[in-house]
């Protein structure tokens, strides 16, 4: 018989699928609020420090957020070579813009988040995340629906980063994972520009959603690719999907990666990424690449993704 | 308010640390037995199929075991170039020897597991794992303590793979993670031989154990390195530590990796590994490599690892 | 911050309602079997000893089963005064007949259980429950559907005890809580005979089902009453509903109760019941009696009870 | 295979013992605060409405608090016959004084709670509990340690009610369950006065603590008795221990109980108690009365109670 000494009486529970439960012991509640769009908690977890929870799903935790944000930003930025203009959809916690602003090539960053209350709460309660990025002179913030913003935007960008919550049926990010939306995004890319989006869990039982998002991108873009990173506080690896009309060449030597990366980013400003670990993030397992190849379902206005329990599972098909 | 439809009433619970709980819904119990050494369950999980549980810790699940066994075997085998003789300590489920036997260079494999009852149960209830490997003519099995075996063995090996259960204080693998043991293993390696060992979870809160195991190896071997793989059914990534007296060169191009690998292993016999994903498994995050560098504690007979709840945590220091 | 030392890695989980979870740490699996009718586990719980689980619901645990079976049998038996013939529907674990056979007035007991495999498993693995009752010469066992048995039975009884599993939609007991069935049972009662049935949880959030069962009985019988007992291993109190065409007089002095009870039952054969605690079991809280009075919904072939997660909740209305 | 639809992602967890877990799905956090003495949460539970949680233990929930407070107050008050002066130790949520003030015999009530922050939070966030009782002209409140208050008090009382948190080692109520304290309380009772105290869970695995508290009282008082009530939101029944130097006669007819009770309390002001259910609350199961009789351990300054996980378990002996 075995067991363990647990040190909390309050557990945030993620239902990864109907047979997998992942729980965080909570030690303190810093904020509990229903915004206009979402249920928001800011809590202190015992294992990963302070964390933001939206609609029952842990979004970001202070102690391991860089496992999400470093690859999300720096992998496509390296593939681009030196982005100057960047659009971030979502990302209201400020981590993504913080990483973007580490690139000395960047001249302008736009952040578009539907939920100003979340951004303001993160600004106040989670300074470890944004680290002042909200007040950078290169940043402009827009509090509106990503879809509306895209429809009305006349600027173009080298890098567009979609850092949205999961496509929950009741959540605000639902329509931003469809072929129609991906097509609109494409019109805002400069030549050689890259679009990257958070694209659901890629642990085995959650697999369908990620391949379908990638496949949906491939209906719109000439090149697509999939990278992934394990996020400890999620209990599962997350996939990011990249898309561009230029080839996405990930087969780079460690040396070449570092040449590009460290000509624009200070070496000691990163916790995870150098040449070796960059190869790790783009070293997508064969089984996942095969699953993407074999996938036939894509998402559109007619067929929107279905989610499970605040998590990315499209079990329907 | 959120929630989910759960589909089980029986939950196997892994206590990853005092603030993290990971649960599998169980749909069937195939075997429940106390062996001479361990509590053993063979169950059907809803998410990852049939699984072996020893002393309250899920060891291996049919649906994702290759995320563990492919990198454990094929990464060091590629670094070696063409192992002919292989010793496997533990690995009673038969997966490790199954992967070893995919190398056409291999002439002899020895499997040493302390617990014959576990091996026999896996043979009967989990044929998806061993796939007949137990009856391969190149295999010899020994049911005895790894320590005793090592002390009495006069053979030498190109590859020694330690696929043991975690160093639980009450479990049988306790002393096989010490400097003394690692030193004895070294005496059984051929020139250019490589030792690789399962080396605990490497998600953030579990970090101490892995760096200490690697650092302990570095007291005995000229070269050590750390690779990792996310195991969905564990809810965390696992580290493998490699050690040798020859340099362990992981900075290989995708092409070079495939030249070595596929000159010995049939391409379609692998689910995960090709050149690209090999780079993924060896693409150890910078933060983990730094933690290993900074680590000062090593394990010896005087200071054995402490575990948490059937899991790898040495919180003591 | 608080927490606790848990001593199990395998948890049987009862979903009492969508917001209440009650879990037993399991220390051993004695039997895991799908019978023709039900999923059956016999396990050892850490808190309440060996237990029988059917279709995900703990039915009976060795260490506290008398909190269920003593009031179920002895309260109606005392109200009757000296039952000679007793019919038990369900109760395949043998506890109910064990209590019935403590009455020296009893001449004949019939046990009707649909699932012989459950009875045989209890006989073998749970002798602490039946204590040999299955082999009493006064007992006759029938393995068939209670409904079929009732339809074909020409005997009459002083006491009919319905000790069925909850009315789960997928379970075998579904139709045995309807007005039609209760009417058929009535035809098998001797004058002055009493029918008693397990009648669902009576903790607040589970309230609807119990009042409806009682109210359904009142459409068929002149007198109905409700008693209750807290079952530790259920985490909730269970209601029993009694019905008869003679008045059910529970307002008895402690002395009068003991006169009746101990003229038929050996005093030291009971763990719970004497005059004082008998008053406890019939001391139904006012709020529950009021809820029964106010209840307007009854169950029939047209409107069968709906259950929640292996538990008694009819949230639908 | 079974399961359930859960409707929350945040679970308050009570560890009833090392093998029993009871969880409430939380739908809203109203307050999260560390007071000078305790960790305090005021939350909305999905099953029992708003609730107060102190040091990881649910104290009181709006939807079923009367199962605790009605028997705690009205049973000893009926046994007394018509209390005029009442002292309440603890009970900072205001429910106990609310019930006390229903007795028209009562002229003065003193409330002594160590933690003014808890009282103020309950006053603001939980008006359903106190229902204005804090502002009754008969009430005087003292925010100090019960022990200090008792030492300095020169008044005497007909009824002293100890409504404290469990004797957790880290909590503030630790020394108020000892022989020494019970002796001091006795000096403040009028002739014929009664002391009643919350006295831990009385479900089987938690049994030791309750019998020891009762037995400790019996070293100081001529008469002691034990009553109990199932609290749905605790998942277990709670025992109350009464003590006096006059006989505590609980063997009363329903009629006699109602004569006393309803000559002082308005009939429709109670949710649970009338003559019949009063007999229920005093109908302590035989097995518990026997356990109390057999108990030999008592608590003193030298041997204070040990608790489990925010719960009442003295497993030590």
From TrEMBL, chains A, B, C, D:
Catalytic activity field: S-adenosyl 3-(methylsulfanyl)propylamine + spermidine = thermospermine + S-methyl-5'-thioadenosine + H(+)
Residue ranges of domain PABS in the record: 9-245
Nucleus in keyword set: no
Gene Ontology annotations of biological process type: polyamine biosynthetic process
Pfam families, alphabetized: Spermine_synt_N, Spermine_synth
EC number, as in UniProt: 2.5.1.79
Active site: 163
Protein name per its UniProtKB record: thermospermine synthase
Species this chain originates from: Galdieria partita
